[in-house]
Amino acid sequence: MQFRLYIGSLLDITSTDLEFAKEVMIKQFSNFGNRQPFTFQDVFPMKESLLHIGKDGPHGYGWKEIRSIVSPVFTTGKMKLMFTTIHERIETLINVLEARIQKDDCIDIY
């Protein structure tokens, strides 16, 4: 199995095909040398998730500092205001995807 994912403008290819992995990681390694690990550590000191925040990042942010930045966005009042819009957008997306799936077996969601 193989699929493509765009992270912004960067293409990320994920595969469970062992031969494909050997081709990229061993046989053609020099052609794929500019890989960069996907990490948030340069911005916030997150390891795998928000639960692994520590003050060892380059800016010294910890959970308390990040929470003070993020919390005002997710107040109860703001979430209630956003709910209808988010729900409408999700319904529209589902309808569009269902229509596209009826036409094609494979769709590109980028």
UniProtKB/TrEMBL annotation:
This protein's record includes keyword Heme: yes
Domain of life: Eukaryota
Cofactor(s) required for function per UniProt: heme
One Gene Ontology term of the molecular function aspect: oxidoreductase activity, acting on paired donors, with incorporation or reduction of molecular oxygen
A Pfam family matched in the record: p450
The entry's keywords: Heme, Iron, Metal-binding, Monooxygenase, Oxidoreductase
PANTHER family assigned: CYTOCHROME P450, CYTOCHROME P450 FAMILY-RELATED
Family: Belongs to the cytochrome P450 family.
Protein name: Cytochrome P450
Species annotation: Acrobeloides nanus
